[in-house]
Amino acid sequence: MNEQKARSKAIIRTSIVGIVTNLFLVAFKALVGVLSSSISVILDAINNLTDAVSSIVTIVGTSLANRKPDKKHPLGHGRIEYLTALVVAAIIIFAGIQSGIQAVKKIFDPGEVEYNIISLVIIAVAVVVKIVLGTYVKNQGKKHNSAALEGSGKDALFDAIISTSVLICALLNFITGIRLEAYVGIIISIFIVKAGIEMMLETLDFILGKRADADLTKQIKEVICRSEQVKGAYDLIITNYGPNKNYASVHIELPDTMTVEEVDVLTREIEKNVYCETGVILTGVGVYAYNTKDNEAAKIRNRVSAIVMENDWALQMHGFFVNTQEKTMRFDVVLSFDIPQQKGLEILYSKLSAEFPEYEFNIVADLDITD
Fold first, then answer.
1. Are 142 and 150 in contact (CB under 8 A)?
2. Which end of the chain is more exposed for a tag (fewer CB within 10 A), N or C?
3. Dist CA 359 CA 121 (whole Å)
4. What values do phi and psi take at 283, rounded to 5?
């Protein structure tokens, strides 16, 4: 809990720095834009204003997400941060569209543009400030696993590029009299909208439930398989309830000689180790038994595995157990998304029944959800 509070404080502190910095930039750029009648500088100021608003939304979202679990939301309110990121993305997209409209209007009604040395210096300083701010906010976002902060940091660094283009445009106008600010404004608006859409799509991936991080799943399985009795870890499902709030379930293969008490002790140890080393809470550990008492079982397993894995759409076979006396065998198979589950199962049942006509099969199809 203390770590979560420290994370929230760091995010809020970083957001406040962003708000204050962006408001200063808005004031100076707006002044330069109005005095010089430059639409590109004014749009750049509006862009900074949306950044400040985004930081305010981030603070509100972080505060709400840090609320304690309650009866209605027993797993907490962490996903509010993803909704916050969506709001920030929507603000960015709206600002980009409005900027584009104003830039297009300026093409048909350009007016007079006048830059001076002071205005050019202010724009140059703004570029440097944005680079420093963007780097700081982005690093804090990565450090504290905040999608909203990381998105704001990336946006700030991109703003530095935009401000640089505005500066180049202003210098060109100051030296040669060539006017490109309206066209630069259109380009700026396009990139703003693009950045907002990318941020929205990335956030939607978290809300919809994207594929688990390959490094995290690998680490969890390594921790589980460190126990000598565990032959393998499968069917790992990780559910995310907000940044740094991951719950998971998994199946492990254990020898058929273990008692329930031994399994209980082992699974509790696994749950503790996984949480301590990865921060993921294992809410359930299912068990597959593998044969240790029947020598013929290994031969049958190898043959079944060969039949199953000769199909390109069969990615993995696990949880195999055969009872040679009762003539039954059961296992799970991970199917790719290239084939419907029912069709894949029908093919496997047909092939295995032809090879082992005296056996009864129980095959469970698993989705390809982790690497």
1. yes
2. N
3. 83
4. -90, -15
The pLDDT of residue 106 is 72
By the 8 A CB rule, do 221 and 231 touch? no
Q: Which domains can be identified in the chain, with CATH numbers?
A: 2-208 (1.20.1510.10), 214-367 (3.30.70.1350)
Pick from 189, 194, 196, 191: which is nearest to 102 by CA? Answer: 189
Q: What is the C-alpha R_g of the chain?
A: 29
Measured CA to CA, the distance from residue 144 to residue 58 in angstroms comes to 13
What are the backbone angles phi and psi of residue 112, rounded to the nearest 5°?
A: -100, 145
Alpha helices (H) in 212-279, listed in sequence order: 214-224, 260-278
Strand partners, 360: 328
Residues contacting residue 341 through CB under 8 Å, at least 6 positions apart: 335, 365
Instruction: Give per-10-residue mean pLDDT for the chain (371 aa).
Output: 70 86 85 75 76 79 80 82 82 80 76 71 82 86 76 75 76 77 77 83 83 88 94 91 85 94 95 93 92 87 94 94 93 93 95 95 87 63
Provide the whole-model pTM. Answer: 0.67
